[in-house]
Structure formats: C-alpha cells, structure tokens
What we know:
- The protein is built from 8 helices and no strands.
- By secondary structure, it is mostly helical.
- The chain has one domain (about 15-135).
- The longest helix is centred in the last third of the chain and has 31 residues, at about 105-135.
- The chain is elongated.
- It starts with 6 loop residues before the first helix and ends in a 10-residue tail after the last helix.
Amino acid sequence: MKRAHGKSDFYKLLIRRAFGWRFWCSVCLICMAFFLDTDPEARNVLLGVYEPQGYVGISFYLQNILLYGNNFRLYLAIMTTGYVMSIPDEWHAGIVPYTVSKMGTGRYAAAQVMLGALNGGLAAACGFGLYIAVMALKFPLLPQD
C-alpha cells in the first residue's frame, strides 16, 4: 500500500532544505563578515604574524565590531540568503504550486516566513559562534591583567 504524503512530510522536507549546505555557507559567510569588521591586528595574530597583546581579548574585538562595525547590513543580507536561494529551485521543479494548492496560500506563506526567520537567526548565531571559536584559538575570552 502506498502511503499518502501528509503535512508532516512537507515540514520535514522544509526543515531538511533549510539546514542544508546553503545554511552552512551562510554561517561561513557571516563569520567572514565578522572578520571583515575585526581589527587587522587580530587577523595578523590569527595568522601567526604577531603575538597577542595581554590587554585584548575576544570581548575587546566584539565590542569594537558591535560599536564601530560597518557590515551590519551585510549580516542581514547573508542571514537569509541561504534559505531564499532554494525557493527558485523549488519553483522550477513545480513543488511550490503543488504545495500551495494542498496547504493553502496562508499556511504556505506562514511556514516559509517562520522557517526563514529561524534559519536566518540560527545562521547568525552559528556564524557568531564560529567567529568566537576561531578567535579563541589565539585570544582569551576576556582581557588578562
């Protein structure tokens, strides 16, 4: 007997699509955008050119990024790019019209918006965490006296 495809299968498909390789590309791009706003001295320390100074820690660089960073619009664009770029693929495959006819426009739109927001938020959080993890290779979290 053939099993009918239900709503839960659609949600599993959406979640699988949302956290695929495009999500991880967004995470890496957000981490790289953080490094664009980081002081060049920190990048040189990470590359082994300089030794870290005792008065700086990851919190020092994060404060500078949050106060003086210029790439905040770039973060917003990158956060949802991974999720949004898969919608044209679905449209060309004929998935979107079929799904909208089964679920209804409102439910489909609500699912897309919620999953896009979740995906973007998690991409930003993972990119931020990756930045901290890379910086922790050479810097302490807090400045040392």
